[in-house]
Write a structure and sequence with these properties.
Length: 97
């Protein structure tokens, strides 16, 4: 279960649907597996076979930064992530879209 309230979930969904409609997106880290603190960041993996365009990553990061979410969202490009880290994410991921 993702540790966010319904309003925060709506913001996350809106940004993902607007900027990443063709991508699988997973959450991982303390907001998924706990324990998390009120201002723990949200770790998000954007899954694709090719590295994401830098412009797209910047736009998504800016959308989250300018949103009303009270914590930081850390974006991770799956295609550029090491196999060791991928395995850690796969063990505790939550599909967001």
């Amino acid at each position: 279960m993702l540790q966010v309230n319904p309003q925060q979930w709506q913001i996350i969904q809106r940004i993902l649907q607007q900027y990443l409609p063709g991508y699988a997106v997973w959450a991982f880290g303390s907001r998924v597996g706990g324990p998390c603190k009120p201002y723990s960041d949200l770790d998000v993996a954007i899954v694709g076979t090719q590295p994401l365009p830098l412009q797209l990553l910047a736009e998504v990061a800016e959308a989250f930064s300018e949103s009303d979410l009270p914590w930081k969202v850390d974006l991770l490009d799956w295609a550029t992530t090491s196999q060791v880290f991928r395995e850690r994410i796969l063990a505790r991921k939550l599909v967001l879209q």
